[in-house]
Amino acid sequence: MKRLLITAVAFLSIQFTAFSQDMTALVNKVKAKLDQVNDYVAEGSMKTDVAFIKAPVGRVKVYFKKPNHFKLKRDGGISILPKGGVTVNMSTLVAGNDFVALSSGDAVINGIKAKVVKLIPTTDNSDVVLSTLYIDETNLLILKAATTTKENGSFEIEMSYGKFISYSLPDKVIFSFNTKDYKMPKGVALEFEDEEKLTDAEKIKRKKGRVQINYSNYTINKGLDDNVFK
Amino acid sequence: MYKLLQIELYKIFRRPRTYISFLAITALVGVIQLGLVKNGDDYVNFVMGNVMQSFSFDGKLLNGYLVCYILLQLLLVHVPLLIALVAADMISGEANMGTLRLMLTKPISRSQFLLAKFTASAIYTFMLLVWIAFLALFVSMFLFGVDDMVIQKTNYLVQLPVGDVFWRYVGAFGFALLSMLSVAALGFFLSNFAENSIGPIVATMSVIIFFTILSTMSIPLFQKIQPFLFTTYMVNWKEFFDPKVNADNAVIIGSLQHPDRIIQSAFILIFHIVGFVGATMVLFKKKDILS
Amino acid sequence: MQSVIKVSNLTKHFKGLTAVNDLSFSVNKGDVYGFLGQNGAGKSTTIRMLLTLIAPTSGEIELFGMNIKTHRSEILRQVGAVVEKPDVYKYLSAYENVSLFAKLSGVKVTDKLVMDQLAMVGLASRAKDTVKTFSQGMKQRLGIGIALVHNPQLIILDEPTNGLDPQGIADIRNLILSLSKEMGKTIVVSSHLLSEIEQVASRLLIIDKGKKLVEGNANELFDPAQTIVEIETIDNAFTLQQLQQSRWQSILQPQRSHSILLKLHREQIPSLHKSLVEMNVQVISLQPRHNLEDFFLQITSNNQHVQAFTN
Q1: Which of B45, B66, B154, B164 should one mutate to test binding to chain A, selecting the residue with the greatest count of A CBs within 10 A?
Q2: Fewer CB in 10 Å around end: N or C, chain B?
Q3: Size of interface A-B (CB pairs under 8 A)
Q4: What residues make up the domain containing A56?
Q5: Confidence of residue C309 (pLDDT cuts 50, 70, 90)
Q6: Nearest-CA distance C253 → chain B (Å)
Q7: Is the CB of residue C8 less than 8 Å away from at least one CB of chain B?
C-alpha cells in the first residue's frame, strides 16, 4: 500500500511537471533566433479586412529596431487600423524576461506541428494579461500568437514564412481583432433605400476584423534612426 | 434654333435674378468651407465618433474630396430651389412681362421657341453645377488637399483610394445634372399654367420638398409610392462612391457596387425630363395666348 | 385689288362666351383699315387670331394669299404688330430690345438699323437707357419701332395710342399716314378712339359682340347729307342766338359746352359760312365731321355707352 502510494505520487508529480513544463528554454531559443535582427525596414501591402469596411489594399512600410521599437506607416493614403495599434512583430511579444512560459500541449497550425506555450507576465504593470504562442519547434518560428491585453482587448496574430525564414521574418501576417458593430443613422448617411436585413451569421462576422500584411521585401540590419519611430 | 437659343441665353444672363443663385451658392459653400477649415477635425471626429471607438485613422481624413462630398449632400437638396427660380419663370415670366405675345408674333415656331427656352435653362443649370463643382471640388482640394476618401454609408464605411475618386465626381456631377434638369423640366412644365412667376416657382419648390419628404421617410405607406417619385432617384449620385469589393473584401479600383441603380435612376430622370418638356410642348402649342 | 388679309367665317368660343361670331372681312393692299368696336366687342381676339396667338374655333384666315395655319412663319416675316400694351424687356435697354426682336424677325442687325429705327420713333437719345425708366408713351413708341424694324408689309396696331399724350397721338397718326402714303404699307389699326380712326382710316370694319356690323370705305359709309359741322366762335352764346333766329335753326344739334353743332349736307357748308359772316359771328373754327361717332352709336346695340362716346 505504501509502495503504491509513493508510486502514485511520483507518477502524478511527473505528470504535473510534464503538464506545467517550463518552456522558457524554447522561448529563449526563439528569442535568440529573432535577436539576429537588430533592425529592419519592410515593404509590403496591407489590407484592413472588416465586414463593414470597404477599403483598398495599400502599400506599407514597417520599421523595427531592437528591443521593441515598431512602427507601421502607410505609404500614402489613409490607414484604418484597430484602436490600440497593430502589434505584428514577434520580438515585441517575447521581449524582456518578465514572464513565465508554460507548455500547453501541441497543435497543428496550417499543417505544421506546433508547441503551444502560454506566456504569463510576472509583473503587474504589463498591459499583456496572457499570450499563447504556437511555436514551430523545428524551425524555431512563432506560427501564431493569441494575446489578451488590459487596454485593447484580445487579438491574434498568424504568420506564414518564406524567403526570410532564416531571420524568423514572416512573408504574411494576419492580425485578427474584435470590433464593435457599425451602424449609421439613415438620415445622417442620407440613404433612404430599404436596407438589406443582416443574417445572424453576418452580424457575427461584423464583430471581428483582420489586418493582413503581405511583405514583399525586408532590408535587415542596415541601421535605423530612432527618429523614425517618433 | 441656334439664334433663338442665343437670345434666350442672353435674356437669362442679363437678368440680375440669375446671379442670385450663383451668389447664394458661393456664400453657402464659402461659409461651410470656412467652418470646416476652422473646426473640420472636430466635425469629422463627431461624425465618425461611432467608428473611431474601434478604429484609429492615420492620414488626412478631412481632405478636399470628403469636403466636396459633405457639400454635395447639403447642396443637392437645396440647389433645386435655385433651379426653380429660373426654370419656372421661363414661360410665366414672359407672360407676366407681356413679352410672350410679342415673341410669338415673330416668325418662330412655338416648338422651337419652347425648346430654345428649355435648352437655355438647361445650360443655366449646367453652368450652376459647373460653378458648384469648381467651388465644392476644386477649391476644397486647394484648401484641404487630397487623400483617400472615407465616407460613411448606413451599414458600412467606404474608403476610396485617392487616385480612384476624381472620375467618380465627374460621374456624380453628371448624374446631378440629370437630377437638376428634371427639376428644371418640372418648373418649366408648371410655368406653362400661369401668367405670373411666383405661382410656378412656389409650386415647383413645394413639389420638390413634398416629394423629397415622401422619398426619405421610412413609412410603409410612403415606401409604396417612393418608386414613382423622381425625387427618390435624385440622390443616387452617391452610388458613384460605393465600389465593389473582391473575395478578399478589398476595394476593386474603378468599380461600382450598383451600376444598375445608377443606370436605372438616370433613365427614370431622363424619362421625367422628356415627359415634362414634351407635355409642355403639347400644351403650349394649343394654348391661347391671352396675356 | 389684292387682299392682304382675308378672313372667312371666323369664330372663337371661350368657355361660356362667343368672342367672335362668324366674322368675315378683307383688307386690301395699301389700306389703312380701321377696326372699330366697343370694349369687349372682339377686336383684340380677332387680331390675336390673325397673329396666331389664339387658335380659331372655326373659320379661315389668309394673309398674303397664304393660309395662316400652313404658312405661319413665312407670313409672320412680313407682319409687324403691336398687340395692346407693347411690353418689352424692362431690364434691357431700348437698343437691346430692338436688336433682340430684329434678330428674331430674321433681320441682319446692324448698329445703323437699330439707331435708325429708334430715331424713327423719337428714341435715339434714349437708346442705351433701360426700358424700366421709360414713360408709357415711350414704351408705346418703342413697341411700334420694334414692330417696324424688319420692314413688314402688313402692320397691325392694336390700340396704338393708348397712354399717349396729344402730341404722341398726333405723332402716331402722322406715322401711320406716312407709312401708308409714302411706303405703301398696309395697316390695320384697332381703336376705340373714333376721332383718331376717322383721321387715318380709308376702310372701316365695325364689330359688336363678335359680329360684323358694317365694312366699307370710310367715305361711302357716311351720308354726305348727314355731315355734322362743329363751329367754335368767340361768343358761342351770341352765335347760338343768331342761328336760332335764322334759317339754320332746324338743323341745330344738341350743343356742347365749347362748340355748336349743326347737321347739314356737305355742299351747304359754304353757305353756312357765308351766313355766319353776315351775322357778324367771329368764327374761330368750322370743322365738318364724318359723323363717325353718331354712325357708330347708331349701329352698335348698346345704348348705355352713348354718354361714354359723346364728350
Answers
A1: B154
A2: N
A3: 123
A4: 21-225
A5: very low
A6: 42
A7: no
Largest CA distance in chain C: 68
Cell numbers for C102, please give them: 430684329
* Burial class, A74, CB count within 10 angstroms (exposed 0-12 / middle 13-18 / buried 19+): middle
B11 → closest Cβ in C72, C77, C89: C89
CB within 8 Å: C101 and B106:
yes
Which residues in chain B have their CB less than 8 angstroms from residue C50's CB?
Answer: none
Q: Give the residue from B125, B236, B71, B240 showing the smallest Cα distance to B171.
A: B240
What is the C-alpha separation between A104 and A97, in angstroms, rounded?
19
For this complex, say whether ipTM is above 0.85.
Answer: no
* C-alpha cell at position C236: 358761342
> Is C104 in contact with B103 (Cβ distance < 8 A)?
yes
CB pairs under 8 A between B and C: 75
Contacts of B215 in chain A (CB under 8 A): 192
CA B25 to chain A, closest CA, distance in angstroms equals 21
Backbone phi and psi for residue C20, each to the nearest 5 degrees, phi listed first: -135, 130
Asked if residue B91 belongs to a domain, the reply is: yes
What are the pLDDT digits (tens) for A122-165?
887 777 888 899 999 999 999 999 988 887 778 889 999 998 89
Query: What does pTM read for this prediction?
Result: 0.81
The chains in contact with chain A, meaning 3 or more Cβ pairs closer than 8 Å, are B
Please check whether residue A2 lies inside any domain of the structure: no
Give pLDDT tens digits for A163-210.
889 888 999 999 888 887 777 666 555 565 555 566 777 777 777 888
- Name the nearest CA neighbour of B178 among B71, B269, B109: B269
Q: Phi and psi of C64, rounded to 5°?
A: 55, 30
pLDDT digits (tens, 9 = 90+) for C9-30: 999 999 888 999 999 999 999 9
Q: Which of C76, C85, C100 lies closest to B7 in CB terms?
A: C100
* Domains parsed from chain C with CATH numbers: 3-220 (3.40.50.300), 224-289 (3.30.70)
Find the CATH number of the domain harbouring A105: 2.50.20
Based on the structure, what is the number of domains in chain A? 1
B97 touches chain C (CB under 8 A): yes
Per-residue pLDDT band for C294 (boundaries 50, 70, 90) equals low
Q: Within a domain: residue A201?
A: yes
Lowest mean pLDDT of A59-73, B224-238, C264-278, name the range. Answer: A59-73
**Is the CB of residue C100 less than 8 Å away from at least one CB of chain B?**
yes
Domain count for chain B, please give it. 1
Contact A184, B153 (CB under 8 A): yes
Task: Report if residue B291 sits inside a domain.
Answer: no
Residues contacting residue A105 through CB under 8 Å, at least 6 positions apart: A116
Residue A8 in domain = no
Residue B114 lies in a domain: yes
Q: Is residue A45 part of a domain?
A: yes
Domain presence at residue B193: yes
User: Which residue in B has a C-alpha nearest to residue A152's C-alpha?
Assistant: B54
